[in-house]
Specification:
With 371 residues, this protein is an alpha+beta fold. Helices cover 43% and strands 12% of the residues. Bound molecules: 2-acetamido-2-deoxy-1-O-phosphono-alpha-D-glucopyranose and magnesium ion (MG).
Length: 371
């Protein structure tokens, strides 16, 4: 069972494949007590499911005139078990960025009537609300190297705005989130406890992942090299986490700050390579549609280094960034498959196996094309 299907009053409007079917009237009754914690006249608003995240549930809150005014989100506390850490990181990052660039668009979170960061409902679920940023387009598909460049540019700008800070003041809300050694251990552990059937189905992938352990050595050398700086990482650098100005198509700011953490530049640069270089995304099951797009790869790296001056030691690691993150994601999807699909929302059986396979194909493409 995936988290997506767990007990929730209004699950019926989350259907497969991103299509949404819902009855606004029945939903509103459920949401009124939540809205009331943040707003004085909750009955005026309409709630509409929003976005495509695999982890949290997101809704748009429209006013009586149908104008979007807030974003309401239920935090997945199975995954983000310490919501206060997230709120602390967000407050710290917002203050830092605001002091350096007052034009930067970031999500401003509302306090509850009790002056808290979250409203905790009767069932213990955590809710937060932020101000909707108008005229911002949310892009999910990267269809030009220029967009890839701008995305990398914007994530680099974000990290740059968060430098000069004591990085240890940021705490990863998910411990060891991008720790490749830990992810590999979790994978080995899950493999030991998997059902025979799943082990069998994943055998070629498992073997492939074991052949890629040299990437663990690269990772180990990186973390033991004091010349590689710790930088604040966004740690989920997909294009949909950037807001683009509807008017001129330029980036306005970075959203989804839940995984802010001290880390290495490979996290952000690598996840951009992972999510933007192949023409198809991690849910693609037709491997023929996956290709290495050299122009996109070069655009990502340029966008990143044009903003963030990397040290000579970091520059040597650039070719590994995408490989390390793709390897990690393949391990994570297969780990979840072995664990019985408890982490990532799935819409069909074996989806995590297919996703892992997709990421192994991608890793092979990166190995073949990035030297
Ligand atoms: C999760 O929910 P979403 O799509 O923002 C995951 C990322 C993975 C991604 C893979 C907290 O992000 O680390 O790369 O799925 N976030 C968490 O699609 O685990
Ligand atoms: Mg995310």
């Amino acid at each position: 069972m995936s988290y997506e299907r767990e007990s929730f009053a209004a699950t019926s409007f989350f259907s497969h494949g991103g299509f949404v079917i819902f009855n606004p009237h029945s939903i509103m009754d459920n949401f009124n007590p939540i809205l009331k914690a943040f707003l004085t006249a909750p009955h005026q608003y309409t709630i509409i499911p929003f976005g495509q995240g695999l982890i949290n549930r997101t809704y748009r809150v429209d006013d009586a005139a149908g104008k979007p005014v807030f974003i309401l989100q239920q935090l997945n506390t199975h995954i983000f078990a310490r919501p206060q850490i997230i709120a602390g990181n967000i407050t710290r990052a917002a203050a830092l960025i605001h002091a350096r660039n007052q034009a930067y668009h970031y999500l401003q979170f509302l306090k509850t009537d009790l002056q808290e960061d979250y409203h905790i409902d009767e069932e213990g679920r955590y809710w937060r609300m932020s101000v909707y940023i108008p005229h911002a387009a949310n892009i999910t598909i990267v269809d030009s190297p220029q967009k890839a460049y701008l995305t990398a540019f914007e994530f680099a700008r974000f990290t740059l705005l968060l430098t000069d800070h004591q990085p240890e003041k940021f705490i990863s809300a998910i411990p060891q989130f991008h720790d490749l050694n830990w992810r590999f251990h979790q994978f080995e552990k899950a493999l030991r406890s998997a059902t025979q059937q799943r082990k069998e189905a994943a055998k070629p992938l498992t073997e492939f992942l074991f052949t890629q352990q040299h990437l663990l050595t690269v990772y180990q050398q990186m973390i033991s090299n004091p010349a590689i700086p710790i930088r604040i990482q966004h740690a989920d650098t997909k294009i949909s986490n950037i807001l683009f100005d509807e008017k001129d198509g330029l980036p306005m700011g970075v959203i989804d700050w839940d995984t802010l953490m001290p880390g290495y530049f490979i996290s952000d640069l690598g996840d951009m390579v992972r999510t933007m270089v192949a023409a198809a995304d991690e849910n693609e099951t037709d491997w023929n549609r996956m290709e290495f797009r050299k122009d996109y790869y070069e655009a990502i790296v340029s966008g990143y280094v044009d903003v963030l001056p990397l040290t000579a030691e970091e520059q040597q690691l650039i070719p590994y960034a995408g490989k390390l993150m793709t390897y990690m994601q393949a391990l994570r999807f297969l780990t979840d498959y072995f664990n019985g699909d408890i982490y990532y929302a799935t819409s069909y059986v074996h989806q995590n196996l297919y996703r892992a396979s997709n990421q192994c194909h991608l890793l092979q493409l990166l190995n073949d094309n990035i030297k």
